[in-house]
Amino acid sequence: MNSASNLSIEHEQTIVALCTPQGAGAIGLIRLSGKDIWPIVDACVRLASGKKLSEQATHTIHYGWVVDQNNQEIDQVLFLVMHAPRTFTGQDVVEITCHNNAFLIEAIIDRILQCGARLAGKGEFTQRAVMLGKIDLLQAEAISDLIHAQTAASLKYSLQQLQGSLSSWTLQIEVAVVEMMAYCEGSFEFLDEEMEFAADVASKMDALILKVEKLLQTFPKQQYIKEGVRIALIGSVNAGKSSLFNCLLDKQRAIVTPIAGTTRDTIEAGVFRDGEFITFVDTAGLRSTDDQIEREGIDRSFQEAASADIILLVVDGATTLSGETRGLYRTVAQQYQDKIIVVQNKIDAPSSHDELGLKLSTVAVSAKNHEKIDLLYQEIFQKIKILKGSDAITCLLNKRQYDLLSKFLQDMLVIAPMLKKRQVDYELVSCRLKDALQLLAEMTGRSISEAALDKVFQTFCVGK
To answer: Would the CA dihedral through 18, 20, 22, 26 be positive or negative?
Structure first.
């Protein structure tokens, strides 16, 4: 996908969209891209110089107005002119910087539509860049990740992948596969040296499998970097979970009352702290109840415990636990021991706390007085460090990329034993390597259908 001939008529049409977020602000940016852009803009643009926008040199900025069919000014704007192929999409592009008022923006876009453009679909500008070979699909997906990055680390990796780090890694894998194919096909003409060929290809295959496995093994840890960490507050009624939840967020997000069972559903909120994005989830208190609504809330508490990355098991330090409550705590602790931090709350009150007999990290705090919260955060960050592990992460995969690489690895694991047979069937090995190479091509988008591209770009915002 690296020439204009690969574009359908639909993707040659001039498209227009607002690229900046909707809402009041200083400026808005409207982008146009397409093959027939110049007659469209000349019909609705008047420059202060009196010249036509289509006659201006590439990569220049011009002051003027967008005008209606009666040549009345809609807004005074700046026009950035960019001629193909030195543009983001690879097509002729005009960007309009206007005043960021919803009525003005709507009027400008409506006027451009009247002149022959159509509204852009989700991610269509980036999709055109991929189809015209300006970037590959991995870099395109990095743009989406960059926009939606929730952590500083995720932002860093997205920038690296936009610059081609994952593309370069994939190219190295492709080169290794092509080299193995060359060895296999070369063996057809050097039958007497067949065993030497087998040893060389098998050695390259082992190194390749190790490299792909190493990246795939980091995928669960990559999700903590991309999406942040989810922490559920679990505990009995009136243990102070909602107070602690508010305290950790440093704002009054959950309702706090002395009435047992106030929280009946999960409440979640995110916070940025020390470069980490953390989602805290307040849950209904654990206890036996005949109240159907409260029972549903408690069931959701157990669901949150299962899906959370870390559990804060909150214990009321001012109350002697009943046998039933102790049993509920122990049930949670036994199921999720590795991700639990025990939080003994209410150290400001006279202690009636009895040990649960759990050999787990414990932090004593007062959510009411905001005491020892920093110590709790230290324990949380220590858990996050363990979750991320010490493995070096070179790039961040999305689910599509992970699935394709997993399939590719399975193909390699099937081929590897074939190279260690006494009589190697090089023709079959070469055929399987070619099939595996198609998976890598699909990774970068060099061999992917337009329908599949449409599916990928549905996750993008319209202005990209």
So the answer is: negative
> Would the pTM of this model clear 0.85, i.e. be above it?
no
Query: Average pLDDT of 242-254?
Result: 81
Helix (H, G, I), strand (E, B) or coil at 77: strand
CATH topology of domain 230-388: Rossmann fold (3.40.50)
| Structural fold of domain 4-135 | Gyrase A; domain 2 (3.30.1360)
Which tens digits make up the pLDDT trace of 77-104? 999 999 999 999 999 999 999 999 999 9
CATH superfamily of domain region 139-218+396-444: tRNA modification GTPase MnmE domain 2 (1.20.120.430)
Distance CA 351, CA 362 (A): 15
Rounded to whole angstroms, how far apart are CA atoms 241 and 239?
6
Other Cβ atoms closer than 10 A to 348: 13
Query: What is the rounded radius of gyration, in angstroms, for the C-alpha atoms of the chain?
Result: 30
**Residue pair 358/231 in contact by the 8 Å Cβ criterion:** no
State how far the Cα of 329 lies from the Cα of 401, in Å rounded to an integer: 40
| Domain spans of the chain, in order of start | 4-135, 139-218+396-444, 230-388
| Residue bearing the bigger pLDDT, 422 or 432 | 432
446, burial (CB in 10 Å: exposed 0-12, middle 13-18, buried 19+): middle
Element (H, E) at 210: helix 194-217
Own/partner contacts of 207-211, CB < 8 Å, gap of 24 or more, are 207/176, 208/173, 208/176, 208/177, 208/180, 208/412, 209/409, 209/412, 209/413, 209/416, 211/173
pLDDT band at 389 (very low <50, low <70, confident <90, very high): confident
